[in-house]
């Protein structure tokens, strides 16, 4: 047991456990929404505060089975939100939304870019830059597909929805965009010691939300075939994962993309797909006995992420 009483504070006791949702009996505890909590002061059992009202607090489990918890177990807050390990180590790897490496597509020795910056931890709930501090959308994003680049002005810093029926090529278009960034990144790979040239580097982040493992492997094989794994990171959340893990997957992708953005790089994020994100959000809200709202539908769920 890893006890950290110097950092934790008492929140309350467990009064009910159902569907990976913990209900606490202290409605006026000094915790906040999004705070990480542990049970019985054991860091191996974590949850996140998702709802606070005048009668009770509801906590969603993150990395433990509800069978390991019991009524009247003590809940302690950690005074922090979810932290994400960021850095160039994510490039070439397939990781979970919380930073665990699933597959190493390239070795650490081959990841020359990781020598430029050390890894660090960032909170997923970082404050967004103000409107005045933001730049105008002035640089184009070239997808490499001539019909799209000629007709549709897509700019860096802009979000773009790819809408269509099943098996119409939405994933293929996103993967093609990542593959076509290779020619812009080659000079950065060859001359990565020269920072002025390195600023043209465009890391790509592909986020799977509630997808099958076979789909992730297929995309890895395509990237490896065209030697595009060294500048691409895959964040994978399985359809078997808890809804809360699927819900936080695009947020973690945004944190990693913002880390590259703050260092002067133009990162490209692909979310596949937002319909699964809306399903996860709908499951969470219905289990919490809340009305889902418009965010529980694919057309509006991206308002939660951006």
Which CATH architecture of the largest domain? 3-Layer(aba) Sandwich
Strand order, sheet with most strands: 1-2-5-4-3-6
Q: For the residues shown, what is the average pLDDT?
A: 81
Beta content comes to 15-25%
Q: Span between N and C termini?
A: 38 Å
Helix content: 25-40%
* CATH topology label of the largest domain: Rossmann fold
Number of structural units classed as domains: 2
Q: Class of the largest domain in CATH?
A: Alpha Beta
CATH superfamily (homologous) name of the largest domain: P-loop containing nucleotide triphosphate hydrolases
For the biggest sheet, the summary is:
6 strands, antiparallel, barrel
Q: SSE string, helix = H, strand = E?
A: EEEEEEEEEEHHHHEHEHEHH
Summing up helix and strand content along with how strands pair, one would put the structural category as alpha+beta
DSSP strand tally: 13
Taken from the alpha-carbon principal axes, the silhouette is: elongated
Report the total helices.
Answer: 8
The parts where pLDDT drops under 50 for at least 5 residues are: 1-6, 190-197
Specify Rg, calculated over alpha carbons: 21 Å
